[in-house]
Amino acid sequence: MEKKTAILMLQDGTTYKGTAIGAIGTTTGEICFNTSMTGYQEIYTDPSYYGQIIVNTVSHIGNYGTVHNENESSKPQINGLVVKSFSSVVSRLTAEGSLQDYLETANLVGISDIDTRELVKHIRTQGAMNAIITSEIEDLKEIKKRLEETPNMDGLELSSEVCTKEPYFVGDPHAAVKVAVLDLGVKKSILTNFTERGMLCKVFPSNTTFEQMKQWKPDGYFLSNGPGDPGAMDYAVETAKAILEADKPLFGICLGHQIISRAVGLETYKMHHGHRGANHPVKNLVSGRSEVTSQNHGFAVKMESIENNESVELTHKNLNDETVEGIKVNGKKAFSVQYHPEASPGPNDSRYLFTRFLELIQDN
What we know:
The strands form three sheets. The protein has a ten-stranded mixed sheet with strand order 10-12-11-13-14-19-18-17-15-16, sandwiched between helices. The mean pLDDT is 96. The protein is built from eleven helices and 19 strands. It is of the alpha/beta class. The protein folds into two domains: 5-148, Glucose Oxidase, domain 1, CATH 3.50.30.20; 159-362, Class I glutamine amidotransferase (GATase) domain (Rossmann fold). Helix 6 links the parallel strand 11 (177-182) and strand 12 (199-204). Helices cover 24% and strands 31% of the residues. Helix 8 crosses helix 9 (255-263).
């Protein structure tokens, strides 16, 4: 089968030519890179990546195929894919299909055979920006026009696009502990970490109020990860404020962490190029231990706003750039982290946080 040419164009005009992978077509979104060495299927199905074009920095993608139970949501959430070397050969005996078939089924457009090292250095220097991948348009002027129509991530509310539309349960219905999950774009492996510890989860749509969740009489509340700008999510901030006012056990991850932070008066901002990968060092300032963490976020909490806020304590800090990685709310049963302690497929250094949340509920 003859390979088809694809074009990647960035918002600043930088253009690459490569080979089309996945479906033939055109796609746009904010381009960002992930430094994980494995777990590409988990990355593509993470709702936090909704609407983004992913660059895998590991050079070889697709070699172990796909398996249904490695999905983090019901379908791929990314808008497009950029890789260096794309494998049509699947080496894993348990694979259920090839990545090419997986991408085609999801109608996902991608490009391979470009210098991803150069591309990542460009993003690190110039910052996150919109991009377009096309394997059907050759006119560069037309490509640029399509790219200019793409909305910027800054100011976008996206959780309502990816969250469940109806509440649903995960776990043993007879479990002793019940956790209300506000779905801002929750990953399946987060729910698994709760149920493995004997907790029953009821997952609610992102716009559910505290009063509505409270009717189920949960023992604790969880605000999930998800896509978009926390500054555009006042509805979720109000829910977090109500949970804190009621002094209920509360845990947040990634976007949930940012929402809790805004609920206690902290500020968030769009990062230059974000943190995405499974190799980010974080220091737990309470225990003094360092953890290798999995991360995926383009927004963060301003460190200066913590320094001027007596209601919160900084509990975790990024060792690469000293950004905020975790807080606890003083006088409340509430804490949150910016990184992903469920870390599917790894590392597992931070999964103790799920146990900590369970102990917080049991001590309540």
